Amino acid sequence: MRRRVLLVLSLLASWAHAKPMEVDEGGEIKRTGNAGLSEAFNRTINLDRSTSLRIAYPNARFLYIQFSKFDLPHGASLTLTTNESTVMYTGKGKSHTAHDTAFYSDRLVGSAVDIVYKRHHDTSKTHGFGITISSYIRGIPRVDLDTKSALTNPACVNKRPVWRPAVCFQEEAPRVFESSRALARMVTLGASSQYATGFLAGCDGYFLTNEHNVRTQEQVDATDFGFLAASARCDDTCNHLALGCAPKLLLRGAATLVAVDTTLDYTLLRFDHAARRQFQALGVPHLPLRHRSRAVVGETIYIVQHPDGTAAKIVTQLRSGSDAVVSDVDVTNKCGKHQVGYAAETIGGASGSPVLATRDHRVIGLHHCGECNVETSTEGAALRTAIPIHDILADLKKKRIDLPACFTMRHG
């Protein structure tokens, strides 16, 4: 029986770059929308013998392992385990091509991961195969480690925001609740991992989000899309945690870039046939887009979103208790021109959320600018802004993007 070698890696001895005392932890977690940061690792696993090693970072909310090469001999396996997650890979793991075997692992919830390589007893040749870990992403805690309370900027968002978990609307406003089920909680992977929001739009697996969230096919392929990330209970504690309330469907590498525009800050994707079948099986809806008319000042709105990577939330009112409404339809600020303005609360991570009209539950804008990035409204609240959906549809037509009639005609 082959001897298993246990490699326990010390943060102080092996990861000088990952020393917690060298990191401005407070500065990181106060930046809403910032999901995690990448740490270099650079280790190649010897495939000639079964081996174990550990990667850990104090207080990390989650870990993603980045493999720059992943190609296992037949019968061999690599298992990644935390206190809450376990995944096993064989062959080329999650790689999509035979030539490029690089990929990010599945999300591993916890602050430490045990990595176990098992060599098959019949494997005699390992030449040409290999596993190299180039880095890992460690999730920022997103809470005050002493008080356990969420960290938001009180100048922009109340310590008790007026949004509520989506399920709280299931009985009192079922159409509003149904709109929230079209959302995906996005986690973009890279040197600086971000939370974002997007939604199924129109029909046939089309999906809208912001260009500043994802702008290339490579970024799309390195993004987790979590659908139906919401609790069945209004008082569930998972509603208040970043990445709380596990999604019913988690996709990566299933979407294709269709169109992108920097000025209008939108990206249109389309999910593949397999994903669309899963949407249908789970009853995930597509949101209808308002294409015949623009937003109107004074009309009542609501926003469905994943603020700061938390479970689906819905905001329908302002802090004053009055209904959220369109305040302006021609806002110009550092985020853009000719935008729809409103005072409904959002924070980082909500970028890419749909702004919907209450009267017809159609999308009138793509939220892209909020928190402390904007000016103050007449009601004393930060004026958030969205790109008018009418402008996005006009741009898609200008770009001659071939879209099905149902993309805009669904529900009128």
From TrEMBL:
Secretion signal span: 1-18
Highest taxon of source: Eukaryota
Keywords, alphabetical: Signal
Pfam families: Trypsin_2
Gene3D superfamilies: 2.40.10.120
Cited InterPro entries: Peptidase_S1_PA
Keyword Signal attached: yes
Keyword Signal tagged: yes
PANTHER family in UniProt: LYSYL ENDOPEPTIDASE
Protein name (Swiss-Prot/TrEMBL): Aste57867_13903 protein
Organism ancestry: Eukaryota, Sar, Stramenopiles, Oomycota, Saprolegniomycetes
Gene coding for it: Aste57867_13903
